[in-house]
Each structure stands twice: as C-alpha cells, then as structure tokens.
Amino acid sequence: MEVEGEETECSMILLPLIGDRVMIFDVEDVKKLRKLGILGVLTGTLPSAPQQNVFHGIPLELGIYEVIWLVENGYGTIVDSLKMHEEVEKQSKSEMSRQNRERVIGDFTHIPNSPAVNSVHSNDPVGAVGLREFIVSRCPTNEALRALLTDYFVFRSVRQNGYQVMPGLRFGGDMIAYPGDPLRYHSHLIVRPLRGPVNLLDIVAGGRLATGVKKVWVIGGLLQEDKTKIQEITIEEESIDQILESEVKPISFSIEWAGFG
What is the pTM of this model? Predict the structure, then answer.
C-alpha cells in the first residue's frame, strides 16, 4: 500500500519480541516505521524530563495489528530479542578474541564498538519468529484467534484507504484514523470493528460522541462468506497464513449524530 506523500521503500525492519510485546529501540527503525504510516505507542521516559508522563520516548511499542501488517507486506521480520542478542554477544566476543581487541582497564573490561553482525540483519535473522507462531502465541483459544483476525481485517482495510491508525480508547473506539501524520492532522474517524450483533444503544452513543469531537463513527465487519471462512479456522491448523493472503474486504458504515432533541 502506498500513501500519498510518503516514502514506503525501506529495508527490512527487525521487530524484537520481548515477552509478548514488540518493542522498537532503534531510532532509525522508528523513522522507517513512521514513513510507512506505522505509529505505535512511545512507552519510554525522556532522560531530560523523567518525572512527567505527557511526552514519551523510545522504546516504541507496536500493536499486534501493526506487527501483522508489517510482516504480511514484507516490511518487517519478528525476532526473538533474547536469542538475537545472545547471538550478537557470541559473535562479538568471537570477533574480539580473534583480533585480540579486548583489553582490561583496572577492574573494567573495555569493549570497543564493533560493526553490525551480518547474520542478525540478514533476510533470515537469528531467532526469527514465524507470523503464525506469533499470532497463536497471542490467542490461547479459537474464539480469540477469530476475533483477532476479524479486527485485523478492519485495520488492514483502514490502512488500505490511506489512513494512519492509533489506539482509539480515549474516544470510545478500538482505533482512531488520521489522514496523514498525527503531528500534522487531526483524526477523522473513530473505528469500531464488529464481531457480532449490533447494539443500537452503542451506535447512538458512538455517533453522539464522535459528532461531539468532530469525527465520524465508523463500524466495520465482515460479510457472511468471510465470516464463515474465519469460523472454520483453529489455532492448530496451518490455514492462518492462507486467510491472511486472501481477499477479505470488510464492509463499513459511518454514523453521524443529527443533533435533534
């Protein structure tokens, strides 16, 4: 997907998996993600102002839908952070030992900077985690897996329409969509994926809230044919990759409050 006015060409981005979260510590990778329209959430403190929580710094935490989108479109590779760093440490020590570059100063060991380890930044990096393995690890049950896939297809549809997405909890939705970089634009849409019957009170509340903050309330779901495909998927099967590659096109409706009464 190409977004107008943005560069989308970049090298493969390593997505370090720490526990069950993907955290980006490399500022250059954060820049690449920004160019791709992947925003994530900054979770670190600023060294110059550690006693406040208004402005944040790296690491950048990526949501599960953003990770799936990056891997699916060939922009990133999920790697086990522990295995990757163990390999970097092992190869770095081997290289320094070979060249006798390690020297001891008093009680400290001085390790000079070493070039990037080629095997870590290759197309098949050490500790690579498959997309299916990553998804299943976040979904302990079949119901959770089906809900995740439904939400992801709505997320993917919003991205395909040129919007950049951030979490939408503060506006009562699952996502908020921006027409460009959030530093330049206000959000236009509050997006709520649907997995079951529609509650009319939720529609009224969402429409009134969205209109009050000058946005549009969007509800999105899947057609019956696509729902049937997802209902047949289980965490034990290999069909997760196939459903991600299929042309699932969610249907969506926008709601605005007319202001009567």
Answer: 0.81
